[in-house]
Specification:
The protein is an all-beta fold and about 130 residues long. The chain has a single domain, classed as Jelly Rolls (Sandwich). The chain has no helices and eleven strands. Strands 1, 3, 5, 6, 7 and 10 form a six-stranded mixed sheet that branches. Strand 5 and strand 6 form a beta hairpin. The mean pLDDT is about 90.
Length: about 130
Amino acid sequence: MAWLREPLDGPMTLDDYVSGALTVGTLKKEWVVDQPCEIKGVRVDSGGAGAGAGSSTIDVLVNGVTIFTGGVGAPTIATASTGDWTVGASALVSLKAGDVISYSVTAIPATSGHTRTKLAIELERT
């Protein structure tokens, strides 16, 4: 788990990079919020395609609860696709010091997940 140690004002980006094939799992990375802020957006990009039927899906959570309304809109990408993932609208999430932001990989294609995957979560201090 990583503590946020950024300047006290302005925007901030939480990021992660997975060079190999994504695997399904919860809490792939966690960050602890050190001051009030809001999640402004999520962006995911993969440089290599997955293999097999299905798609890859990532969920972003705050204190273990998805930020996507009803679980709809979580970032997803089709098996053979590369580049930016499709991300739906998320609920406006206000955070306080001590909240935990995390992400989980909830689905991958049948044979193997996407590779060279980059995740960015944009925050704005309030």
